[in-house]
Amino acid sequence: MSFVASKRLTLFDYVNYSLLAIMSIICVFPFIYVFSVSFTDPKVYVPLQFYLFPEKWSLSAYRYILSTNSFMNALKSTVFVTGIGTVLSVIVSFTFAYVLTKKAVPGRNVMLGGVIFTLVFNAGILPNYLLIKDLGLLNSHWSLILSGLTNAWSLIVIKSFLDTLPSELEDAARIDGCSDIGVFWRIIVPLSMPAVAAFTLFFAVAYWNTYFNALIYLTDAKKWTLQVLIKSLVIDSDSNGVGGSGGSDDRVIPQETIRMASIVLAMVPILLVYPFLQKHFAKGVMLGSVKG
């Protein structure tokens, strides 16, 4: 069957696959360059030269970055925002979406209408900033967590997924004496694990990559997240942004290797999460987007 299927490939298919392969390689090259430069020994590094593989491997840039106060503070801030924010976002999103599935809940249509309204209209940057300021959350990591706790798209997709679960299971649990909270935690949550895994990944990536909110809400450089720190390194060309350990290392190690190593360190942790959630990821997205 595989031989017959391969014979059905047309010239368009071959051209299409070739173009996709070329585009994929082009997209991968920047990652290879960043990875290669970050591991290049400072003694053999030549500016403005493309490195497919390091001429001489070295961990000098990584040792320097991990020894600085600024990078470690940014890493701690990002881990805190990602960890706490992801947990709270998953809890709030699934509990709120579960309420929206119950037609008997008073004000359910009003709440659902409000969710859909925010999907179409957004308050804007200035009102959001004034709200965070009035709540006293400026220059606090909670401004990043609470401002992105949930969103209309996530609520609608999760609600669509929860609507597919058999209501008979909830009725049976209530007959056995389960309360509404018991039904949610003992019946709904275990059945929703694929969706929970998918949205855990969505929220974790969103919080880890938080940049704009951190840029406008955090004025203390010691509370910066990784993305803001890397922006200072790459765009502002400020290699002193990761300083803090002093010494002459920042004069020995090229600024470019420091920037690239910072980018790699910011990418790797969140990439390591994907293999653990991959088996639930596709299933969770499909179940949450299609009802039937």
Automatic annotation (TrEMBL):
<feature type="transmembrane region" description="Helical">
    <location>
        <begin position="258"/>
        <end position="277"/>
    </location>
</feature>
<feature type="transmembrane region" description="Helical">
    <location>
        <begin position="112"/>
        <end position="132"/>
    </location>
</feature>
<feature type="transmembrane region" description="Helical">
    <location>
        <begin position="79"/>
        <end position="100"/>
    </location>
</feature>
<dbReference type="Pfam" id="PF00528">
    <property type="entry name" value="BPD_transp_1"/>
</dbReference>
<comment type="similarity">
    <text>Belongs to the binding-protein-dependent transport system permease family.</text>
</comment>
<keyword id="KW-0812">Transmembrane</keyword>
<feature type="transmembrane region" description="Helical">
    <location>
        <begin position="183"/>
        <end position="208"/>
    </location>
</feature>
<feature type="domain" description="ABC transmembrane type-1">
    <location>
        <begin position="75"/>
        <end position="276"/>
    </location>
</feature>
<protein>
    <submittedName>
        <fullName>ABC transporter permease subunit</fullName>
    </submittedName>
</protein>
<keyword id="KW-0472">Membrane</keyword>
<feature type="transmembrane region" description="Helical">
    <location>
        <begin position="12"/>
        <end position="35"/>
    </location>
</feature>
<keyword id="KW-0813">Transport</keyword>
<dbReference type="InterPro" id="IPR035906">
    <property type="entry name" value="MetI-like_sf"/>
</dbReference>
<dbReference type="InterPro" id="IPR000515">
    <property type="entry name" value="MetI-like"/>
</dbReference>
<keyword id="KW-1003">Cell membrane</keyword>
<keyword id="KW-1133">Transmembrane helix</keyword>
